Automatic annotation (TrEMBL):
Name of the gene this protein is made from: hmp_5
CDD domains linked to this entry: FNR_like_3
Cofactor needs: FAD
Protein name: Flavohemoprotein
Membrane-spanning segments: 20-39, 51-72, 93-113, 133-152, 164-191, 197-217
Keyword Cytoplasm carried by entry: no
InterPro entries hit by this protein: FAD-bd_8, FAD-bd_FR_type, Fe3_Rdtase_TM_dom, FNR_nucleotide-bd, MRET, OxRdtase_FAD/NAD-bd, Riboflavin_synthase-like_b-brl
Main location: membrane
């Protein structure tokens, strides 16, 4: 069995096991509400509405915790499930968590107002101002709404990555602020030590995972491998390569095509972690990333000083050559999306037939062109530069088959904007490339 087939079976098993554990946890969480519901609670409309609201709170919070666990960067989970799948699940689960917690607020206030025979707005005000631990919970809910709204595609398109990232961090604070409200006032926890132990255990496990894998592991690696900036090289207009040196970097186990969350310990950006792919195959003493000016952080990287300390989370992603089934390989990159493909090109096995399509709007946007040309000479790869407007190079099935006649036999690796990834996926599927031989790395998967 090939490495790629083993990887696919591993990912399938990982996905199945993940769904099983999440389902079991949800069942236990729902059982907490069911087991603590009395006949008195079921005897009135107000009681039924309140129970439904509490069930929404438990389920919504559970989904929020699972969502955080999906991006906790737990190594064996990342390896068995895949980073892109985890991020996709995280994004799909997030809105449901917010909807359920919002419904909890609506239903519980409604149930209490029906029971107290008060107007809805007055009951809401009374709960916020007089109910124990309600103010922190309210603040947490507002923060969660803010993080949720800014994560919608249209809203996110109007803000920088840095702004979105900072707002998104409020999700952690939102979940933490709701904890005391749940544990100290939730009727399903008061006088029920087993239920309380389960809920506290969930919070401790998720919080501990976040701290261990997203903070302490990168810190340990930075100290162990002595990661520092070696030099910064201008590659083109608004594009720089950062060479990061260290010791025994092969122990990290990175491959071309993977990415890290990089934290450069400067005065202004030490608290921010940003995802960038390796733009060259890693070596024992050196790794390299190539970054385009797309915001405040990426713009500042051109001014990094030699010797700046670096924390690195990763490596992440399964966008690697060992996923290939065929000896025919097609690499498709758009703009700065060529960088992980350039690293992949170094690691393609000898004897492979390789084509590279490099899409760019202008000639000056062809990043790392000299290196690609050199690697093409060394490996026999054929590089197809497509510079100009999209309608000149539509990359339709007909257009693609003329450039790469054997595309149906290829493993296809694509990296770049989502529009490019979707266009290539549609074209190669129409030409007979099965999903098992299509490998994509959309930039959107990195940013969580």
């Amino acid at each position: 069995m090939s490495a790629s087939h083993r990887d696919q079976r591993r990912l399938q098993r990982g996905g199945d096991l993940s769904a099983l554990f999440v389902g079991l946890g949800l069942g236990i969480t729902i059982a907490i509400q069911v087991s603590t519901t009395s006949s008195h609670d079921l005897s009135s409309a107000a009681g039924l509405v309140t129970i439904a609201g509490r069930l929404c709170a438990l389920s919504g919070t559970y989904f929020a915790l699972v969502g955080l666990l999906m991006v906790a960067r737990i190594p064996w989970v990342e390896h068995s499930v895949g980073h892109d799948r985890l991020v996709t699940w995280h994004r799909k689960l997030g809105p449901w968590s917010l909807y359920l917690i919002g419904l909890h607020v609506i239903l519980v206030v409604l149930g209490y107002s029906m029971n107290d025979k008060l107007p809805y707005y007055r009951e809401l005000w009374n709960l916020i101002t007089t109910y124990p631990w309600m103010l922190p919970a309210t603040a947490g809910f507002v923060l969660m709404v803010m993080a949720g709204v800014t994560s919608y595609k249209k809203a996110r398109a109007h803000m920088s990555y840095e702004t979105w990232w900072i707002i998104h961090l409020y999700t952690y604070l939102a979940v933490a602020l709701s904890f005391t409200h749940q544990i100290l006032t939730g009727v399903m926890f008061i006088g029920h030590p087993i239920n309380k132990a389960w809920w506290i255990g969930l919070y401790v496990f998720v919080g501990g995972s976040m701290v261990a894998w997203r903070f302490f592991l990168p810190l340990f690696r930075s100290i162990r491998h002595q990661l520092v900036v070696d030099r910064v090289v201008v590659e083109g207009p608004g594009v720089v390569s950062i060479h990061i040196k260290g010791r025994k970097l092969n122990k990290i186990g990175a491959q071309g095509g993977q990415f890290f969350g990089w934290r450069f310990l400067t005065q202004n950006f030490w608290y921010q972690s940003h995802p960038y792919s390796l733009s060259a195959a890693p070596h024992d003493k050196l790794m390299r990333i190539t970054v385009k000016d797309l915001g405040d952080h990426s713009r500042s990287l051109a001014n990094l000083k030699r010797g700046t300390r670096v924390l690195a989370e990763g490596p992440y992603g399964i966008f690697t050559v060992d996923r290939a089934i065929s000896k025919n390989v097609l690499l498709v990159g758009g703009g700065v999306g060529i960088t992980p493909l350039r690293a992949l090109l170094e690691e393609v096995p000898r004897g492979s037939s390789v084509d590279v399509i490099y899409r760019a709007a202008k000639a000056e946007d062809l990043v790392l062109k000299k290196e690609l040309d050199y690697l093409a000479e060394q490996t026999g790869a054929r590089i197809h530069y497509m510079v100009g407007p999209r309608d000149q190079f539509p990359l339709t099935p007909n257009h693609l088959s003329k450039i790469i006649p054997n595309v149906a036999k290829c493993d296809v690796f694509v990296c770049g904007p989502e529009a490019l990834v979707h266009r290539i996926r549609h074209s190669v599927e129409a030409l007979g490339v099965p999903s098992s031989r299509f490998h994509d790395e959309a930039f959107a998967f990195h940013s969580v």
